[in-house]
Design goal:
alpha/beta; 2-enoyl-CoA Hydratase, Chain A, domain 1; 2 domains; Lyase 2-enoyl-coa Hydratase, Chain  A, domain 2; 260 residues; 4-stranded mixed beta sheet; globular
Length: 260
């Protein structure tokens, strides 16, 4: 891979690093293609339990690459539509990853980088980071990232920051729920490692099921059908080998077999 670095510290953990520090990890068509392919491959690995997503250098992701933007200036409508669809499909691929994605934001996170941050199930950021939905300054709009960013920061915050293109401090992003954990730069790696270890220690099937549960239940009316569906899901997992092992290990005061 030319734009990413993939590290496997264990069979259960994958680290995906944006690796274009000279251009602040900005997007281009190659980055989009490599992220899509990498997450498609990771999603098919049954032993995987968590993915770490971060960037090398001073920025997490600065948005679109300037050379890529210059090329797009001469695109036809059809070319722009196809190019935007590839970005939308990449974000969807990352969002549909069956295991939790932990975001490590060590530097500035702008425009498309906000889309990457917003698909993370757990987002950890350094206190000196700046976030920005900068598209409106260029006469554009954050269309392809909008479903994920609105979900992550909330409608009312999105109404403001989509239209003003103001910068957000890490503390502001934490206050609106976009960032889950805020820490000093020197503590960032330790906090990320702690969260990754916590996820790996949990029942792997249960974690995947929990992630899917949030997707399926969020925003739904609490109907009879939904109540029945949630009852079915807990019955399924209680009756599963992992569910039985988890309960037996708890009662027996021993580690479950997925931790051994």
């Amino acid at each position: 891979m030319n734009t990413l670095q993939l590290i496997r510290p264990s069979a259960h953990v994958a680290e995906v690093w944006l690796n274009r520090p000279d251009v602040r990890n900005a997007f281009n068509d190659e980055v989009i293609a490599e992220l899509t392919q990498t997450f498609q491959q990771l999603a098919a690995q049954p032993e995987l339990r968590v993915v770490l997503l971060s960037g090398r250098g001073k920025a997490f992701c600065a948005g679109a690459d300037l050379n890529w933007m210059r090329a797009m200036a001469d695109y036809s409508w059809e070319q722009n539509r196809a190019d935007a669809q590839r970005l939308a499909d990449m974000l969807w691929t990352l969002d549909q990853c069956p295991v939790p994605v932990v975001g490590r934001v060590q530097g500035d996170c702008y425009a498309g980088g906000m889309g990457l941050a917003s698909i993370c199930d757990v987002l950890v950021a350094s206190s000196n980071v700046t976030f920005c939905l900068s598209e409106a300054r260029l006469g554009l709009l954050p269309a392809t990232i909008s479903p994920y960013v609105i979900r992550a920061m909330g409608v009312q915050a999105a109404r403001r920051y989509f239209t003003t293109a103001e910068r957000l401090s890490a503390a502001q992003a934490h206050g609106m729920g976009l960032v889950h954990e805020l820490c000093e730069p020197e503590a960032l790696d330790a906090k990320v490692a702690e969260i990754v270890a916590t996820l790996v220690a949990n029942g792997p099937a249960a974690v995947k099921a929990c992630k899917q549960l949030v997707r399926d239940v969020a925003g739904q009316d609490i109907t009879e059908a939904l109540r029945a569906e949630t009852a079915r899901r807990i019955a399924d997992i209680r009756a599963s080998s992992e569910g039985k092992e988890g309960l037996q290990s708890f009662l027996g005061k021993r580690p479950p077999n997925w931790q051994i």
